[in-house]
Automatic annotation (TrEMBL):
Entry's localization field: Membrane
GO biological process: proteolysis
Membrane-spanning intervals of the chain: 15-34, 76-95, 107-126, 132-150, 157-184, 204-226
Pfam families: Rhomboid
Taxonomic path: Bacteria, Pseudomonadati, Pseudomonadota, Alphaproteobacteria, Hyphomicrobiales
Protein name: Membrane associated rhomboid family serine protease
C-alpha cells in the first residue's frame, strides 16, 4: 500500500523537506558515479555496521574506527537503489510537510535526526554482531510518520493498493495507517529475530525504533509548544475528495 496524499495542514513552503530530499538524491547520484572500491569505502565509513561497535578489534583490523558514531546519522542519507530512494523520499514528501508546519523547521530537523539515531540504535541492538552495512532513511521517516499520526490522528490518508493490475484507492485515518504499518514491522522484526538474519535485507527494528521515537517526540513537542506559526495550506489537488467517516 502506497500513500498518495493526505488532508493534514502542510507547510506552504516546506524548505527542510525540500532540502532533505535534495540532499538524499544528490548523495545517491554521486554514489552511482563511484567505482566499486570507492563505493565500498563510503559504505565502510558512513553506513551503519554493527560489528564496528560489537567487536572493536575486528573493526580496527579492517580500518573501521569503533569510536566514531557518525554512522548512526550518516547512514540515513545513503540508499541501495532507485526504488529504495524513491519510496523513502515519496513518504517523506507525503508526511514531512505537515510535521514541518507543526514542529517548525528546527523542530522538524530535530525530529528527523532523533528518529535516525533511534532507528540506528534499535538496529544495533537487534543485529549486534552483524558485519552487513545498513543504510536508508526509512527509520527517520518512520519517526515522521509516527509523529504525524499522533499529531493528526483523524487526518485522512489516501492509499493506493494494487490488486493484480487494478489500482484500488482506499482512504484511511492517519492513526489506522500508522498502527497497521507498525504492526507489520513488529511481525516482520520478530520473524527476523527467530530467523537469525536480516530478512530480505530490511532493517525492521530500525523502523520500530524510529517509530517509537516519533511518538515520544510528538508528545514532548506538544507539551512544550514546539514550533507552530509556519504558514500552512490544505490539499487542493484534483484527486477525488476523501469521503467522511
Amino acid at each position: 500500500m502506497i500513500p498518495i496524499y493526505d488532508t493534514a495542514p502542510r507547510a506552504r513552503t516546506p524548505v527542510v523537506v525540500y532540502g532533505m530530499i535534495l540532499a538524499n538524491v544528490a548523495i545517491f547520484i554521486w554514489m552511482v558515479g563511484l567505482s566499486g572500491p570507492e563505493t565500498g569505502w563510503v559504505l565502510m565509513h558512513f553506513a551503519l555496521i554493527p560489528l564496528r561497535y560489537s567487536d572493536p578489534e575486528a573493526a580496527l583490523a579492517v580500518g573501521l574506527d569503533p569510536t566514531s558514531y557518525w554512522p548512526l546519522l550518516t547512514s540515513t542519507f545513503l540508499h541501495g537503489g532507485w526504488l529504495h530512494l524513491g519510496l523513502n523520499m515519496w513518504s517523506l514528501w507525503i508526511f514531512g510537510p505537515a510535521m514541518e508546519a507543526h514542529c517548525g523547521r528546527l523542530g522538524f530537523i530535530l525530529l528527523y535526526a532523533a528518529g535516525a539515531v533511534a532507528a540506528s540504535f534499535a538496529h544495533l541492538v537487534a543485529n549486534w554482531t552483524s558485519p552487513v552495512p545498513a543504510l536508508g532513511a526509512s527509520g527517520a521517516i518512520a519517526a515522521v510518520v509516527a509523529a504525524y499520526a499522533v499529531t493528526y490522528p483523524r487526518a485522512k490518508v489516501m492509499l493506493l493498493v494494487p490488486i493484480l493490475f487494478l489500482p484500488l484507492f482506499v482512504p484511511v485515518s492517519a492513526l489506522f495507517f500508522a498502527a497497521f504499518w507498525f504492526v507489520l514491522q513488529i511481525l516482520q522484526g520478530t520473524q527476523e529475530l527467530f530467523a537469525g538474519s536480516m530478512g530480505a535485507g530490511v532493517a525492521w527494528w530500525a523502523h520500530i525504533g524510529g517509530f517509537l521515537l516519533g511518538i515520544f517526540f510528538a508528545k514532548v513537542a506538544d507539551a512544550l509548544g514546539l514550533g507552530r506559526g509556519i504558514e500552512t495550506r490544505r490539499w487542493s489537488g484534483s484527486v477525488p475528495r476523501v469521503p467522511r467517516r
